Amino acid sequence: MKSALWLASVMTAYACVFLLQESSATHEKYELSPTLPVQMQQATLGYFQQLGAEMLHIKSAVFLGGTPSGIDHESYVDNLADHFDAAATLHPKLLDTYYLAESSLSWINSDSVRRANHVLGKGIEARPDQWVLSFFAGFNSFYYLKEHDAAAEHLQRAAAVEGAPRWVGHLASVIAGRGGDIYGGLIWLRAMLADEEDPEVREFYENDIRMFENALTVQQALEQYEQRHGALPSNLDQLVPEFVPAIPDVGPDFILAYEDQSLRMMRP
Amino acid sequence: MLLRVLALARIMFLDGLRRHALLGIVSLAIAAEAFGLLFMDFFGRDIGRASSDYLFSVMWMAGLLFLFFHAVQVISWDEERGAIYALLSRPISRSEYVLGVFVGLSALLIALLLLLGPVAYLTLLWIKKSLASVYFPELSMSHFLLAWAGVLAMQIVILAIIMLFSGLVRGGFPVLLLSASYYAICSGLPVVRASTAQHDGQGLNLLLQLMTALFPDFSRLDFKDEVLTASLSLDTAIIFTNFSVAILYACVMVSLACWFYARRDLQ
């Protein structure tokens, strides 16, 4: 009887303390715990490196799946980026890491988008057969960072991958023009045209090439102006009529913009 | 000599089969491999790769459990129970005893991996058939066998080291500590080499290279990534060299174990 009473008392005490612990645990701050330095993980995991990367992926996915509404995204962004960086170092061939990094990291702030591109860089190196990774990096550079030259470079790399959709190459050339690289965009478009058999798509490319060639006359006029005056003009009207008879039309698909002394082909 | 070694190996093999701990490892590993069917649900894209990594990790873990919780104790059990004297009273030398234990434990290890390998392959096949090809584009049986042989070769090397430590020190626990430390150095050394290769002097790099001869780089036998490829990304000559290094290293370590054990005081 005594022992039964003792057992019941101990079990009741345990249940009370356990419930107290659980009630305090529900008020814990929602956060992603930091990950260990990647070299330490490499050294300790050995043959389990790939599994370690997959566990980091699962941990990140579970965390992201449960983020409460209204959470300050900047509160976890560094730890999250560290998780993806470590996962990509431990297992650079695992695609899921890059998809999750792109969807969860790229939009938070300019630092996080750079970190997303850093993680994607590891995937691009390890999985050169995956055009989508270079496409993600190009999209981040274009949309979030406004670095059009870098975006065009990423997209050109994506377009060169076997199996990449043809529109990626076209996008690369348009973005190159937008970034001020009219020459690069034109060369890329001509290469696309040479490789295209569909008459409708060929017509589409030919039209873009005509517009880029028009823009190229302005680019060449700018270079001649700079040679003669030692500096670029403040606006394109200063080129007319000495260097170019008139500013050519590049519409309706493009607008010729001259900003920060750089000629760009912008979409309207 | 070969017959005596094989006879002793057979005793070690049967003794191992009778141990409940080993049956527990097998049951745990098969259950963990079956869990691979659930593990794949955590991934949305590279499902084949994640599943393959997981199943090979289970095989690796089962092998390590066998090595660190059974193999490290076998010689010390014989010494503590006095069975070693019964064995050595027969026309069998101490070197033959060490060789017999090594062959018996290797046979157990091979049996364990032979059991887990087909289960893992069938699980992968099941997963592949249940998915669209974009999520699991390739499963090569020959590359699977290569990765399986890599796991076996690494664990045979660890077993050879366990034999060496068992020949040098008394008691299962010291052998476990030494073997675990050895494994930790083997895992950590390639990371140190990679970090110093870029910017440190030739002297240090040479020292680390020499250390790799003592503490081999197991990642050279890790072919998990090849399982999902149609053609090998590594040169077959390199693969052959890596396996040859592992086999010769194990031979050297077992020879040293025999040499030390033949000269050790058993009292």
Task: Give structural notes.
The complex is a heterodimer of chains A (268) and B (267). Chain A is mainly α and 268 residues long. Helix content of chain A is 65%, strand content 4%. Chain A has helices spanning 2-25, 38-45, 49-65, 77-90, 95-105, 110-126, 131-144, 148-160, 166-178, 182-194, 199-229; strands at 255-259, 262-266. A two-stranded antiparallel sheet of chain A has the order 1-2. In chain A, a hairpin with a 2-residue loop joins strand 1 and strand 2. The longest helix of chain A is centred in the C-terminal third of the chain and has 31 residues, at 199-229. Chain A is elongated and about 110 Å long. The mean pLDDT of chain A is 86. Chain B has 267 residues and is mainly alpha-helical. In chain B, 76% of the residues lie in helices and 0% in strands. Chain B is built from eleven helices and no strands. Chain B has helices at 2-18, 20-34, 36-39, 47-69, 74-81, 83-88, 94-129, 141-168, 172-197, 202-214, 236-263. The interface between A and B is medium-sized, with 20 and 29 residues.
Blueprint of the fold:
The complex is a heterodimer of chains A (268) and B (267).
Chain A lengths: L1 H24 L12 H8 L3 H17 L11 H14 L4 H11 L4 H17 L4 H14 L3 H13 L5 H13 L3 H13 L4 H31 L25 E5 L2 E5 L2
Antiparallel strand pairs in A: 1-2
Chain B lengths: L1 H17 L1 H15 L1 H4 L7 H23 L4 H8 L1 H6 L5 H36 L11 H28 L3 H26 L4 H13 L21 H28 L4
Helix pairs in contact in B: 1-7, 2-4, 2-7, 4-7, 4-8, 7-8, 7-11, 8-9, 8-11, 9-10
